[in-house]
Write a structure and sequence with these properties.
Strand order of the largest sheet: 3-2-1-4-5-6-7-8
Mean pLDDT: 87
Pfam families: adh_short (PF00106)
Bound molecules: NADP nicotinamide-adenine-dinucleotide phosphate
Organism: Arctia plantaginis (Wood tiger moth)
Distance between the termini: 32 Å
Structural class: alpha/beta
Strand content: 5-15%
Helix content: 40-55%
Family: Belongs to the short-chain dehydrogenases/reductases (SDR) family.
GO molecular function: carbonyl reductase (NADPH) activity
Protein name: Carbonyl reductase [NADPH] 1
Length: 303
């Protein structure tokens, strides 16, 4: 999270935070023209594990970079409340917010329990609803929100015609999205979910469902925040060599940080409610026949 209030020169009113420390956001901007160097305000780095977060901050300090730190578990409402209260008291608001926390089991593409699926959906999708409730009110007018989605979040990942239709509806509601997620979870619980309802024979299905829900929710969030000229976008960062991909990918973390930083600091404020590809291209999220869906073969061929 960070600020983007270009006409505000009061640094104390700028708040910038990352959800996670060992992700491309942080390491992707340790050097060169990264966020921590370019952003003229307070940058918060957060992590669910206090010890690891503080260790990451110490590493950044060695490089002369000075983010603030706060613990944040996006699935723990009390943790978000503590963070919210801290930011409110210290800085009054947030100018830019990056929702980046996620989990994916990329070593088991098809085999997982209901509990694992539920955990993935909770972290990757349901947490955004709590963040929206508690942190969005702190985002200042003309601010920016970036939801880190995935190619798994494009509508072309869905093969079920009913859900393609419902998620494409211009009058989509949060209830529709929650029903979509719960349809999947119920199917897993009952053993009735057909993997062919998704692209790529349903690989990493819980992650795919959660990211589609996140990108759909982004469109709704934009509508809700339009009157305050806040931009809300979701993006696919590319296949990046991180823990999540077991080190597989065509991008390193520095390269992967370029488009997010562009969206946070350089893109026109008029870029709103978009689904953005790792090369800055704005894609048609509704194009369900497109070839943008995640293909698990890439995890093997990029090795
Ligand atoms: N890498 C890729 O190729 C790729 C492709 C498409 C999209 N993405 C997206 O890019 C973002 C960053 O992914 P990454 O590749 O950097 O993955 P990563 O290395 O696994 O990092 C994910 C981060 O999320 C944190 N996290 C998990 N649960 C959390 C929770 N409950 N509260 C707070 N933080 C939590 C993890 O913290 P811990 O260290 O405590 O586990 C970890 O730092 C994710 O949204 C991911 O879905 C990545």
């Amino acid at each position: 999270m960070l600020r983007a209030n270009n006409d505000d020169s009061d640094a104390s009113s700028w708040t910038c935070c990352h959800h996670n420390f060992n992700c491309f956001w942080t390491y992707g901007n340790l050097d060169q023209d990264g966020l921590l160097k370019r952003f003229d305000g307070v940058v918060y780095l957060t992590s669910r594990d206090d010890g690891r977060g503080k260790a990451a901050v110490a590493k950044l300090n060695e490089l002369g970079l000075k983010p603030e730190y706060h613990q944040l578990d996006v699935t723990d409402k009390e943790s978000i409340v503590r963070f919210r209260d801290h930011i409110k008291e210290k800085y009054g608001g947030i100018d830019i917010l990056v929702n980046n926390a996620a989990v994916a089991n990329t070593s088991e593409l098809y085999s997982y329990s209901y509990e694992e699926a539920k955990n993935t959906i909770d972290i990757n999708y349901y947490s955004i609803l709590t963040i929206e409730e508690l942190l969005f009110p702190l985002v200042r007018d003309n601010g920016r929100i970036l939801n880190i989605s995935s190619n798994c979040g494009h509508l072309s990942n869905i093969r079920n015609e009913n859900w393609i239709k419902r998620l494409s509806n211009k009058n989509l509601t949060e209830n529709d999205i929650n029903e979509f997620v719960n349809w999947y979870l119920e199917g897993i619980k009952n053993g009735t979910f057909d993997l062919n309802e998704l692209a790529d024979a349903g690989s990493i299905a819980p992650y795919r469902i959660a990211k589609v829900a996140l990108s759909a929710k982004t469109i709704l969030q934009q509508k809700e925040l339009e009157s305050r000229n806040i931009s809300v976008n979701s993006m696919h960062p590319g296949l990046v060599r991180t823990d999540m991909t077991l080190g597989i990918g065509f991008y390193n973390t520095d390269q992967a940080a370029e488009t997010p930083i562009y969206l946070l600091l350089d893109a026109p404020q008029s870029l709103k409610g978009a689904y953005v590809w790792y090369d800055r291209k704005v894609l048609d999220w509704y194009d369900y026949k497109a070839d943008y869906y995640f293909k698990s073969v890439n995890l093997i061929t990029e090795k």
